[in-house]
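Priority: low. Protein: Oligosaccharide repeat unit polymerase. Input follows.
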Amino acid sequence: MLTDQNLNFSRQKVLILIYLPWVLSIITQLDPIVSYFVAWSGSFYIFYLTLFSKVKFIPLDLPLTKQVMRPIVLIQLIFAGFMCCTSIFYFMDHMGYEYFNKKSIIPFKVNELTYFIAKCQRMSLLAHAALVTGMIVQIKQFPIIKHKLNLNLDFFLIWLCVGCYLLGATASKIASVSQFSFGLINISITCSALVFVRGIVQRKRGYIFFGGGLFVFNFLASTLTGYKESIIINVIIISFLLYPYYKKVILTLAIPTIYILLYILPTFASIVRSQAWSGQKTAVEARKAAFNAVLTSDAPLIDETNWGFLTNRLSEINMFAKFVKHIPAERDYYGLEIFKNSLLAIIPRFIWPNKFITESISMERVYEARVAYKGSDVSAKTRPVVDGYVSAGLFGVFISIFLYGWLAQWLCNKAEEWFGGYELGCIVMFNAIFQNLWRGNNFEFLLNNIFYGYIAMYAIFWMLKRSNTLTELDVYKNTANISSI
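Result:
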């Protein structure tokens, strides 16, 4: 029998152990190369400890393989993966390597930048631990579900897919509510993918054609945008949905898929952007040219484009290092300034016509740190770990990312509580509406997305409850099995 005391002890045990790599990286900081690699490998230790070890603290209502889209798995892997693990390419480039091959016979010498990179990696590791801490504090090992869906889930997903797409398309054309369109369209895309996967599992052709057709259409549309992120997001959604049922297949395809995404996709997206955005060709023509280029181009072209992407776009530790060099040596910490601007950014423009442009004000600190220069065609917005640092240093990193993880898990709990559990609550509502939490954004945009995302989620819940599509359950019936475990 599990008691509150047992659960708290289990929670505390993992929360203590995840900070050991960070402590070790601090101890070894006099040697920046050793300290960097200790901090970099520390994130893999946290992945193992929180997802695969005996001391992991996760919800117990489902096996781990069937809850991979909850924050402790999906958001941790993506957010911490980008923040902590991708820096290896930039660091190896800094040490004189390209694709792990030495570019020069001159021995590498530790310099000022080496220390800054190692310091940033240590703070990223601390942020990873803080993220997981926030999630684990909010995790309920026996999630509370207060409502049930009164319709067949597959039928409802189809209805929701069509309805949200139409609402999202309409909202995108109305300036005052256009920000709601992204969440609604994401719900539609996620529903189509889930219907497709459920159709495969249940061997129902109608669901396969409906869900698969819509998902493939959206995937092809994402290849016209010139953005890598939209393509990667579609791959992540379908992979994580299929994983619980086809683990061996997904794991077998993981390496070649990652190779394509990291090696070929940067060149593909670059060609689409350069030709379609400049007006030289239509988006369809640019996509065709990109396909031909990556299939027939010689390796040096792809290598050059890809290495630049891996070192300076996939990994953002270069930006982080510039901020660490700039603050507090050249400028004091921002304190609560960024947070105040984030709160002001929530105010709708029809209420405050003279409100600042969020993009402009968030780019000011980028210009101050000379990460980018005014007039350049670059949008180099900061990530949460950087905003945490520039606000209050190491303390700011820990507090901001702890709250990030805490809030992500709380929102997931609320979605499952309102929408009848994991599939509709976590997979569809939480991950579609709050998709920005996967990788994060600067504080101004992030807080705005969370605030209006919560309003959108509650509005959908209210409408479904009013129409009796969702009805209230007796909470005690859902937790009665706890005493028997």
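The chain is about 70% helix and 0% strand. Residues 4-484 form one domain.
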